[in-house]
């Protein structure tokens, strides 16, 4: 891996920290910024490009903050803005099933670049679910998400299938295989 520090990564960390200020992870008081930073670290660890790392750090800004596509484009350029946009739900206020179906359809047609960012996002979410399950127990955990274990299992298994379509280990896709294994271990499929 040939990693060279990109000052845009620092700028993405700053922007994401400001945009997510005052937000917390579901069910606890952990500042939300911990999630996009973890996604960026996961992407760095698997050899993603700097653009993917930056998009990973910014992946929830369009969906969950006041920032818009134009803000990301102005600061980081069209490529990164497009990556962030492609990782975002079109209508975060739509009903859960509608949002997830649309996400899956969009992801099927996405580039491997986008799939890797989304996989890092979902992988970190799954690791947090495992931790929260131990702390909260089954009933409390799923109440936080509005959908139960069965619906979440369906969604995560669909994601794993999409990530593994056309994936191979030579293209920094080992995260896709690890995600599938973690989904199987957590949900039992």
What is the SS-derived class?
mainly alpha
Number of strands: 0
CATH topology: Hypothetical protein af1432
CATH superfamily: Hypothetical protein af1432
Strand content: under 5%
CATH first level = Mainly Alpha
Into which percent range does the helicity of residues fall?
A: 55-70%
Main pleated sheet:
none
Q: Report the mean per-residue pLDDT as an integer.
A: 90
N→C terminal distance: 33 Å
- The rounded Rg comes to 16 Å
Poorly predicted runs: none
Number of helices: 11
The shape, in one word, is globular
- Give the ordered list of helices and strands: HHHHHHHHHHH
Count of distinct structural domains: 1
Q: Architecture in CATH?
A: Orthogonal Bundle
Structure description:
With 189 residues, the protein is mostly helical. Helices cover 69% and strands 0% of the residues.
Entry keywords:
single chain; 189 residues; mainly alpha; Hypothetical protein af1432; 11 helices
What's the gist of this structure?
The protein is an all-alpha fold.
What are the SSEs and their pairings?
Elements: H1 7-19, H2 34-45, H3 50-58, H4 61-64, H5 69-76, H6 78-86, H7 96-108, H8 112-136, H9 138-145, H10 149-164, H11 174-187
Helix pairs in contact: 1-3, 2-3, 2-8, 3-6, 3-8, 5-6, 7-10, 8-9, 8-10, 8-11, 10-11
